[in-house]
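Q: Sequence in, structure out?
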Amino acid sequence: MTTALPSHTTPEVRSLLAGTLPHELSHGLGGPYHVLFPGRFDANAAAFRAVFTEAGVDGRVYFAKKANKAAVYAERAAVAGLGVDVASQGELREALAAGVRGEDLVVTGPAKGDDLLRVAVLQGALIAVDGLDELDRLLTLATELDRTPRVLLRRLPPEQPHSRFGLDEDEVRRALRRCADGRVDMEGFSFHLSGYDTRQRADLAAELLSLCADARTLGLRADRISIGGGFAVDYVDAEDWRRFEESRRPEHFHAGKSFGGFYPYHSPVAGADALRTILAATPAGESTDLAGLLRAAGVALLVEPGRALLDQAGFTVFRVRGVKERDGYAILTVDGSSLSLSEQWFDSEFLPDPVLVPAGSGPVADAGPYPACVGAATCLESDLLTWRKIPFPVRPAVGDLLVYLNTAGYQMDSNESPFHELPLPPKVVVEPSVPAGASPSASSSSSAFRWRLDRRPV
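A: Exactly. Output:
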């Protein structure tokens, strides 16, 4: 039998799942739904900012909007004074509607369309330039709009020469000459680096500092660099992850399913601690840590985390519709699809165990474990939320809830679609019923939480 992979969670989540609200929401909303915790987003952002303060580095945190479509996170970013990283007109519109100022946006993505570039220039957003043709279009827009675009030049990582993102060494030189000769505010450099290697990020950041020095000799501003995202999230305990990796076999998955690879669900260095590690690293060929190099150069560091700002900031709830026994394990069918658990659509699996919240509260006479995979309410053989045979502590039953924890980052809505004309799962914003620091009054609700539906800009 496959080993258990319980997810890290929080006292807030445990308290919520112990009450009646999850079942009440399932009944009232009539299907699967997502829960959002904006307070956790605020705490994660504060942790990143604290690292910059500790290191004495001028830094800026941008929330990567693509990680979650909810309005509430962009709204909280605006109130907290965070930047927002957008890559489409839709994301830009929603960020502006949430109150984010144009100057607090950074526009990324390859080969951006003219309409997106035009709005970005008019709003004073920072634009990560990915190609020489894109830079030429920006220079043309500068003349047409009588505005000065703010740009970062995106560097192609030498360690990932086949990446489709960024300018190689020769293209960077040509771009710098065009910036020096044209109407553009060249504020610095950025890169898009796959993976979670903190050492690679520190080394490449040092290279960008050298490029800033070269740019300044041409009279360009070049006073900031962006190292993008790539801050891992630690989902499960180290020992549980080790046992899973060592014992994993095809028979642990429905139909002997195999995968191209898995996200590293345990990471010893994650979130704001990963930023701390990067700043404390001494890049290759240097004698000073990255924080010291940034201070000496007078260069600000921009980061664009998405998943890491959403760590523990939400979960996803499905109701069990059917339980089918099959060859020593069960196939559960729930009232949603794997489109709301996006990892499945990348030839992978969201591995942390879902939490079973029984519909009844009576004693359990036949305790498990009961292995079960989780299928969706669609007519596709391949549409499973969980292929792995989860060792549930008790036998799942119709009416029970399955709660997938920590899904706010890239899981709950990246690939959602109204397949079968099923409605998209609504998002429920949950906060403590008594704000932090306040004293409950006699008229306060007995519930520890209050909720509302997320309001998406239109």
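The chain has two domains: 11-37+312-453, 38-232+267-308.
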